[in-house]
């Protein structure tokens, strides 16, 4: 692994047939402005990916993990290494609070396959980040084939 890459931890928060994602703010200074993306973020110095993920989920949606999540994989590009964790969403959205981003929603497998989803708050169809969409498509294939996700229920 290239040590010059910025480490981040992101969550595939899932329920049967859907994934919780955030619609990022429309700020040109952030990655994926106005796109659907995962919850998560940069690791603080000395933080493990799991510690960082737990902190980020609390900061962004007030979700507390009761146990360590399943690590689905790592995805890197020229700048970032993403530690991707699959986590069942075990509470209703009404028990959570959106603290970052302009909207959130449970995106269906059809939304993921299409690459877009409507946001009521933005009153428009918005794209799913290309990289996040690819990670979700990989995850869905693994769920359907049982290749790398044997511990996740096959309710998709």
From TrEMBL:
Residues 4-130 form the Nudix hydrolase domain. SUPFAM superfamilies: Nudix. The keyword Cell wall biogenesis/degradation does not apply. Keywords: Hydrolase, Magnesium, Metal-binding. Its cofactor is Mg(2+). GO terms for molecular function: hydrolase activity. Belongs to the Nudix hydrolase family. PANTHER family: 7,8-DIHYDRO-8-OXOGUANINE TRIPHOSPHATASE, 8-OXO-DGTP DIPHOSPHATASE YTKD-RELATED. This is NUDIX hydrolase. It comes from Spirulina subsalsa FACHB-351.
